[in-house]
Here is the input.
Amino acid sequence: MDDFKTFPPALVVVTLSGTALELTPIRLGELPRLLAVVRPLAEEITSDPDWMALLGQHGEAMLDLLAITARRERAWVNDLPLDDAVQLAAAVFEVNADFFVGRVVPGIQRSAEKLAPLLHRLGTSPSPA
Here is the structure.
């Protein structure tokens, strides 16, 4: 039961361009799309992410991540002013911090550790003629 620190899930309300948006932790049905989007940028998600750097380096993935976690259409996210996008990213991270930092990053690191010996063997084995 340690996984459930608060019940019901914590709600974060963020006001963007005068509109209040209620954010809740991600749901099971959102995981497949979210994990596909998060994978390329997971190593850069820390307990204090640089949102501008993430948007600059992984813009499309970040915008998709915001759309999924805000449960809004991508076009809505695309139209946000930059300061609202950064505020939304911070709120999304706040409500899902346990998932991002406690589960996604370690999970990807574990997968990389498991694959490292195989990749090393493949890289050092002679090529078939």
Remarks:
- The two ends are 55 Å apart (CA to CA).
